[in-house]
Design brief:
Elements: H1 3-31, H2 33-54, H3 63-89, H4 92-99, H5 102-114, H6 120-137, H7 140-144, H8 154-178, H9 180-202, H10 211-234, H11 240-247, H12 251-261, H13 270-286
Helix pairs in contact: 1-2, 1-3, 1-10, 1-11, 1-12, 2-9, 2-10, 3-8, 3-9, 4-8, 4-12, 5-8, 5-11, 6-13, 8-9, 9-10
Amino acid sequence: MDTSTGIMLALFSMFAFGISDILTQKAVRGFGSLNTAVYRGTATIAVALAFFALSANPVTFDGGMIVFAAALGIFGFIPYMTFLKAMNRGKIGIVSPIANSSFVITAVLAVFLFGELFTALHALSVILILVGIALLTFDVDDIKDGRAEAVPGALLALLTSLMWGVYFLLFSIPARSLGPYPAVIITEVFLLLTSLSAILLRGDGLKRPDRENLKIAVLDGIFVGLGGIMFANALMFADVGLVTTISKASPLIAITLAAAINREKLKPYRYPAMLMVIIGIGILAVL
């Protein structure tokens, strides 16, 4: 495999997902989680279909793998909802690093299931990231007062991380079997259908957003689509552990943009916590 190509594609994915996080929070706070999922998902599928139509990649038909990808899309609805709810409640500078720490789980599972490399430096990186996440998740002042309460959105983000760790590992299977574009399209279509089903079960119908919120949701979907396409293509050239590690460094982009756009302020001790996460990601990315 041409690993350098995989790394480059994963970096593009990182930037796209980082920008998406900013847009996701604005969308979900504008008109809710399920509505965001539907409008964002529609735009994501449109982007994936456009790239698929322009690509010259051969199409592989495998009924069992198509069913697997569809089931994965349905499962993906759960962590996406917890992520949206976390974004609605918390700050990007806290939610994004915790949710995207899912690559640790993906990398570890890839060692056991796919035989990918895991060294002492990998272990050091995992420790740095987990300690950093703990400091991001809980308010030190509350712990000193005997109240270990998680900051808003942090526990939902942690739950997202656990499920995304499994999701992105499994996604590599249909991506490599069916091809990157069909894998993205199938999973996103069934995630969208699940979102629509949830709206029907809720009984209040799909809300029509105002022009500003619709624009944000569509832009979010475009960047998610670009990130997903780059991620899926990167899997053709590099191990899923490496690709996920680089792609999930997207909080670097999200935190920088949040500080510039939303003027988010974090307590001083959370800056070294974020640095620990970033260092851990950096070590894994260059191994």
